[in-house]
Amino acid sequence: MPVINRIADFHDEMTAWRHDIHMHPETAFEEHRTADVVAKKLESFGIEVHRGLAKTGVVGVLRAGTGTRAIGLRADMDALDVQETNTFAHASTLHGKMHACGHDGHTCMLLGAAKHLAETRNFDGTVYFIFQPAEENEGGGRVMVEEGLFDKFPCSDVYGMHNMPGFPVGKFAIRPGPMMAAYDVFEVIVEGKGAHGAMPHHGVDPVVVASHIVTALQSIVARNVDPMDTAVVSTTQIHAGDTWNVIPQTAMLRGTVRTFKTHVQDFIEKRIQEIARNVAAAFGASIKFRYERRYPATVNTEAETENAARAAAALVGEANVNRNPTPAMGSEDFAWMLRAKPGAYIWIGNGDGEGSCMVHNPGYDFNDEVLPLGASYWVTLVEQQLARQEPVRQAAE
Question: Which helix or strand (DSSP H or E) is residue 49 part of?
Fold first, then answer.
């Protein structure tokens, strides 16, 4: 696999880092041990370390030469509330928590790049190594930006990377424009009238109302959204009742919405509320409605996408860089950094062999074979974007 030789030399070391982090998963804003590991590694490489943004965030600063340009490289550190089913030696030691999305691998790829860049300093300018907490659901990227990430570490552009199961190792994918969808959530509380389960005519059954709302919501994408646009409306929870023979007073349903365009996002929010209210009214019930916009769409800027694609192609060849992948309906809070700065988010293949599975699965594990390639990508990107300028020699008179 085409990786930088020196990084290949410490592949086993990177693997040991990842296995340690995988064994000790920490979820949103609780990444204290992981942040300590990251900070100590950076300090051991001779990199300036800053802590405290978004509670557990870590930023390493490495300068070389006299250049004034700076770029940011971001990795996420948090795990998920998932019970791991793997039985290998480095499986999670914490019940109900695991690295089911590969953030342990992302962290170690960036640490590997930091180690190499600190050794070689073959660039001219400043690199900010951004280790972000709470990517999953809680918006740690947004919090870092709001707490002054780019004021304290003023880079011109920022880059992110995520593993992608199903893509072969040695392949990358990136495109300008949307890579990942916006992430919204909604909640509808149906207020009915409780009654005896054997005497439904004395009540207004909120379970029936909620069921009709769930079915009606599917018409939004099927019949209201332009077929040339992309959207998902999924009801993922229904909660009602406590016993067998009581029609409850209320029922609650929750779900998620994924979109790429703001006007589609606006329309779906309005339409969910209209459908829920009108369906409930038809049954003699009422609703309370809540809608939250969690993450915006992850949108790559054109010039920075080219920078990232060029760095990937320098490693694996142009044929192994997909420059027009289908955007994913999943979401990514790196979107908040891309709202603040130009930048690009790239996918790196995590393998497509037997036994591989998609992220957020209890049997998932980051592919250690990918570690040196990801670190080499980061180093190549830095050395390209912060290339040393050869001195201009005047011709002899």
Answer: strand 48-51
Cα dist from 351 to 297, 347, 367, whole Å: 26, 12, 7
Q: How far apart are the first and last CA of the chain?
A: 49
Cβ-proximal residues to 156 (8 Å cutoff; 6+ apart), any chain:
69, 70, 71, 341, 342
Q: Round to whole Å and give the CA distance between 309 and 222.
A: 35
Task: Name the residue among 1, 2, 4, 7 with its Cα closest to residue 115.
Answer: 7
Q: Where are the alpha helices (DSSP H) in the chain?
A: 5-9, 11-23, 32-44, 103-120, 140-146, 149-152, 206-219, 262-282, 302-316, 335-340, 371-385
DSSP letter assigned to residue 172:
E
Tell me the pTM: 0.92
- The phi, psi pair for 338, rounded to 5°, reads -70, -20
Instruction: List the pLDDT tens digit at each of the 397 positions of the chain.
Output: 589 999 999 999 999 999 999 999 999 999 999 999 999 999 999 999 999 999 999 999 999 999 999 999 999 999 999 999 999 999 999 999 999 999 999 999 999 999 999 999 999 999 999 999 999 989 999 999 999 999 999 999 999 999 999 999 999 999 999 999 999 999 999 999 999 999 999 999 999 999 999 999 999 999 999 999 999 999 999 999 999 999 999 999 999 999 999 999 999 999 999 999 999 999 999 999 999 999 999 999 999 999 999 999 999 999 999 999 999 999 999 999 999 999 999 999 999 876 678 999 999 999 999 999 999 999 999 999 999 876 544 544 4
The widest CA-to-CA distance across the chain, in whole angstroms, is 106
Closest-CA residue to 123 (of 309, 311, 321, 300): 311
Other Cβ atoms less than 10 A from the Cβ of 44: the count is 10
Would you tell me how many other CB atoms lie within 10 Å of the CB of residue 49? Answer: 17
| Residue corresponding to tokens 């070391």 | 13
**Amino acid letter for position 104:** D
